[in-house]
Amino acid sequence: MTYYHQQVLSLHNNLYPKEYLLAQVIRSKKFIDTNFTKSLSLDDIAGEAFISKFHFIRLYKTYYGITPHQHLKRVRVAAAKELLKSGMPVAAVCYEVGFESVPSFTRLFKTITGTTPFAWQIRSR
Q1: Is 38 within 8 Å of 98 (Cβ atoms)?
Q2: Greater confidence, 5 or 1?
Q3: Which of 11, 52, 73, 80 is the most buried (most CB within 10 A)?
Q4: Residues 92-118, mean pLDDT to the nearest whole number
Q5: Burial code of 3-41, b = ≥16 C-beta within 10 A, e = fewer?
């Protein structure tokens, strides 16, 4: 068990004694981690947890400290970094990790990493 997972369990025990809620939120996180390349909506993710989307956002943020959408963006950028390292073109990486437009991908990538995807790719070689 990782330190991060222990912290989530500790928060859970202190705030929400209902085990099934923790299991559902963890299930939804795994869903994001495995399906990030697809077009995911909040309804899709909350549906995976079988919780209303507004309650789900509150639970997810309580357990993980970020919203499901923020987690999805981070997972996509992390995957994009790996693909950029391999030399794949920026536009191809954009669509491969689930973004629908290169400008929005570039803007988010720069916001998270502080540099553009192309500059990051050159620097990581």
Answers
A1: yes
A2: 5
A3: 80
A4: 94
A5: eeeeebeeebeeeeeeeebbebbbebbebbeebbeeebe
pLDDT in tens, 46-104: 988 888 899 999 989 988 999 999 999 999 999 999 999 999 999 999 999 999 999 99
The residue written with tokens 């993710």 in the block is 45
Which secondary structure element, helix H or strand E, spans residue 36, and what is its range? none
DSSP state of 66: S
Query: What is the residue-wise DSSP string for 14-72?
Result: HH---HHHHHHHHHHHHHHHHHTTS---HHHHHHHHTS-HHHHHHHHHHHHSS-HHHHH
**Which residue, 110, 39, 38, is CA-closest to 81?**
110
**What is the Cα–Cα distance from 12 to 62, expressed in whole angstroms?**
9
Cα distance between residue 27 and residue 22, in whole Å: 8
Residue 1 has pLDDT above 70, yes or no: no
Tokens of 108: 């988010």
Instruction: With beta carbons less than 8 A apart as the criterion, state whether 112 and 73 touch.
Output: yes
